[in-house]
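To start, one record:
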Amino acid sequence: MNRAYKKDKYEWGCYLFIGVALFIFLLGFFEAILMFDYSVFFKIPIALLSCFILLFLYSKFLTLYTGNKIPHLITRQISKVSIGWLVIMLFDSITIGCLYLSNYYLPQKVEFSLHDQFYGLTLFAVVAVGEEIICRGIIYKLVCDRWNIYVALIISSLIFGIMHIFNDGATL
């Protein structure tokens, strides 16, 4: 990792605490907005706007932390992200198919509601962007800058796991 961004330990701690606290607050705020009972077709633009705001504020946070203008990585990385999503979908499909064929995965019933699917997608988008910014964007980057990549991977992964331990169906 490039050590050009290294700060003294108090300044680094402030960036870490303020960054995590700010994005946890923003994530909770946007989730609360999406929990109100109005049309899901109104929630989709709100979710997209929320994701854009979170990503924009994250780029501003990085600019403030590094002191440099951060290039817009989204446009450069869109093909890599698309390939990653395709690989994940293929891997998950093969895994679920193998489990189904070996009788380890047997769906009990299938219910489909377009409204519920869109609602889940909007909430998932905002939560996923917020969690990744907090764990991979702020915690990983700042810990990696302060110590090394191995410590950063362990700490950010543990925090990410702890955040999900209370989800329904989570197992150890």
Summary: The radius of gyration is 19 Å. The mean pLDDT is 80. The CA atoms of residues 18 and 132 lie 16 Å apart.
